[in-house]
Each structure stands twice: as structure tokens, then as C-alpha cells.
Amino acid sequence: MFIFTGAFFIGANAKEKPEPIIMKVAGTDVPLSEFIFMAQKDAGVDLKNKKSIADYLELFKNYKLKVADAEALKIQETDQFKREYNQYAKQLQTSFLSDKEGEDSAMHVLFERSKLLPGFQYILVRTPSYDHLPADTVEPYKTAMAIYKRLENGEMFETLGEEIKNLNKEDSVIYGKTDFIYPMLLPKVVEDRIYALQPKEISSVFREKAGFYIIKLDKITPNPGQIHVAHILISLSENPSEEAVDAARQKADSLYQRLLAGADFAETAKTCSDDTISAKKGGELNYFGLGAMVEPFEQASFALQNSGDISKPVQTRYGFHIIKLIDKQTDIKFEEVASYIYQKMSESERSFDLHRSFDEKLKARYGYFLHQEAYDELEALANLFFPADTGFYYKGLDMFKPLVRIDTISFPQYAFVDYVFKRPSSAKPLSTDYLAEHFILFVRNITTEMERNQLEINYPEYKNLVKEYYDGILLFEITNKRVWSHPSERQADLESEWLKEINEKYPVIINKKTVKNIPKYIKQQSKK
Questions:
Q1: How far apart are CA 284 and CA 326, in angstroms?
Q2: Distance in angstroms (rounded) separating the CA atoms of residues 514 and 24
Q3: What is the pTM of this model?
Q4: Hey, which of 34, 79, 115, 287 would disulfide with 226, CB 3.0 to 4.6 Å?
Q5: 12 pLDDT higher than 60
């Protein structure tokens, strides 16, 4: 049986050229790259100047001696050290096992979309919401195509949609309409199709996990951003009489005139507003965008131009509102919403867009090659059995053809089948979609593990950062023990005594030839 282990991948490109050693401290070699990495982080060090190098070399030697002293006390073997070090190493690995530029590019797509809010109509012909095979989609597809044919022949989308709404009582076909919607609130496939359309254009039939869609883009509304208002509400009951409406209107008009005459809005809201929750805050509501409030309230709010402007009383189904503009946020920067977009993408099917660039980068690095015929055989099996079912699993275990080659290693069909069966989770109800999604994850799992085992070779900075943190924890613990835990007036003497002790206790050998060649080495590195 095929098993994923880190050891399985260690042989991939694992040869690393030996690098110059600048010193040996307590029997441990210290590579030149570590010395240079630390020196370049100190603004006071000039690696082109011999005296500057010599001065820093002494500081660095003492630094490594303190670390050696901590290791002699076996601080690195304590549970506290291991916990802190492993947590950092894991976080650092995660930062290197990604493509920040590619992620930013994927997030920018959604950020740019957020500037334009589409209004659209849709017709959805449902397919089974549970696990199903392609054969189960034949009849829904025929229904969707028949509807699309009627649209092609000139029938109005909304008229046809209303007909569907009135005739279809079992919700197997659904018609809907929305004036505008924000990115990441719709299924990815639907959103992508909507933003690819021009106003008044109708999409072809396309499939999403809920079924077959036809979309008509009605309009594109520029996103006005978010708005912060306060309001005073004179409420109405659900079915008010004309007398009640007139009374509420008169009260709202009276309050409006009082505000125009100079009354304080917040105090008036606290004493007069029927929205008891916002009244406590002077009528203030949270920031909101289009679609968050009932339409008359929303239109009146966004019509206000300047902070402090107050609207005339506006009627909604809740009653009469007097609205004061506090602030508008119309120019939102990408940096302000990037973490939100990243989180939303990570938690949804858009995570594949988020990580696609890194996936492709690793596939190129490790010589990814797909045997398409072998995959087609697995897809044919997925037409007969859902990939999470035992029927797919047991038949798939007898499929031995090479499926994919990564870094000279061939992975057979049964290895992927085993992976799919042991990871039975996906939002894809259609068997072939389920298979395709798992294949992306299968390849990502292999290439990421290969990259994890190559981090120190592919990214010299990673190796130095890990070492810096390892040494840093030890240095903190040992210095606290030897110096900082004592009275401040004794610390300078204790530091001096400690340095004398460890310089006598642990042998240090400086590679003078390597030290002499540091400027030359720096110059060579800058040309790479």
C-alpha cells in the first residue's frame, strides 16, 4: 500500500554543495553564510571594511560561545524550548511554502471586482444535492438547454423566469433576481460567469454544484463604498392605519424642524427615537454598504453628501427615519481589506485560486508530468462509482498504470485512489468534480512535501532564520540565568566574568582565509 511519508521524498535533489566555514566553536562548524546573514542585519557593520569585519567577528564569536554554553546545559532539550522552537519553525515553513505574489494577484481579482456590483437574473435547474454521477445530470441538462433555446428564440428572460416561478412548485427549477451583490457571496463558478458578461448579455448553460445555471446580467453598479449614519426612527406597526401614518409623519416632520433649528441630533435620538438599540448611541448605526438596508433608507443615506447633512423624513416599512451622515468610506485600499479577502478565500473553494500560482511553481520545479490516459481511466471509473465509495476504491486498487511523475518518481493510479478514499471530504457532489479536486490536492501534497524537505537548499534565508531563532531562544535563556536574573548593579561584572569563562572553556578556531575573502564572497553573491 502506498503511504505518504516525509522520508519518501528526502532523496529528491538532496545534494547540497559544501559552503565555507568561518569558525569552529566548541567543536561545531559555523558556516560563512550564517555570519554574513547576521552581520547584514546589523546596520553598523560594513562587510567591505576589514576593521568592521574584525570588530563584528569578535561579537559574533562571543554570541556563538554563549549559545554553546546553553547547549552544554541542554536547554535545547527542555519541553519549553521544543514547544517554542517547533511553533516558530512551523510558522516559518508555512511562509516559505506559499507564493505571496501569486496570492496577492488572486486577491486583487476579487478586490477589483468589489468596485463593481452586478445586478442579474438567473434560472437554475437543480441537480441532486448529494453525491451523484454524471448520468444523473442528463435530464436536468436537457431541461436547462430547452429553457436556453427559448431565450435564444427571443423570449424575455424575466417573463420566462416568472412563468417558471409560477409553474414549478417543487423547486426543481428556480428563477431569481438581485439588484446587486458583492464578490464572494455567490458560488465561485456563478460569480466568475457574471463578471465575464456585459450588461444585457445572457450566459450559455453552465454547471455548478447546485445544478445548471443560465444568467442574464442586467446592470453594473459602481460600488459607493460604506457609509456611517445615525438615524431617528418614528416607528409604525406592521399594518398601520392612515391616521397612524399621518401621526408618525407629523411627529417626524416636527423633529426634523427641531433639528434644522439647531437641536442636537444625538440627544434627540436618545430621547425620541423608537429604535431603542441605536438610540442609546445617539442613533448611530454600524458602517454598511449597498444591500444591507431597506431600499428607501439606503437611497436616502447614500444621497447625503457631507458629514453632518440630515435627510428629510424617509418612510420605510418600519416607519419614518431622519438620517444624519457621519462618514463615507469611498476609497478603500487593498491593504485595508487584504486579510479579510485572504480569510474568505481560504475558507472556500476559492482557496484553489489562492494557491494555484504556488502549485504551478512547484509542478514546474519538480518536473510534473501527467499521464492523461491513466487519469481518463480513473475518470471513467468515477462515471460508475462515486470516488468516496468502496466500489471505486477496490476497483481502483487494481489499477497500476503510472498516473503522474514528479521529480523522477512515478505515482501509480492506485496511490491516488488510496489518497482519495482516505480523504473523503469535498463540497463537490458530482463524482468527476470530486475526483478533479482531489487530484489537485494529491499533487499539492506531494510537491509541498518535496519542497518542505528542500527548504534549506532552495531558500538559504530559511536555514539562517531557523538557526537565528534557535540560537536566540538559547541566548535568552542562558543570559537570563547568568546575568539578567541578578541585581542590575552586578550585571556588567557578571557579563564580563561569563565571557572570560566561556572563552577559556570552549575552543574556538577562526578560519582566517575565509575571513579574508569575505569582501570577495559578498561581491560574488551580489552577482547571482
A1: 9
A2: 12
A3: 0.78
A4: 287
A5: no
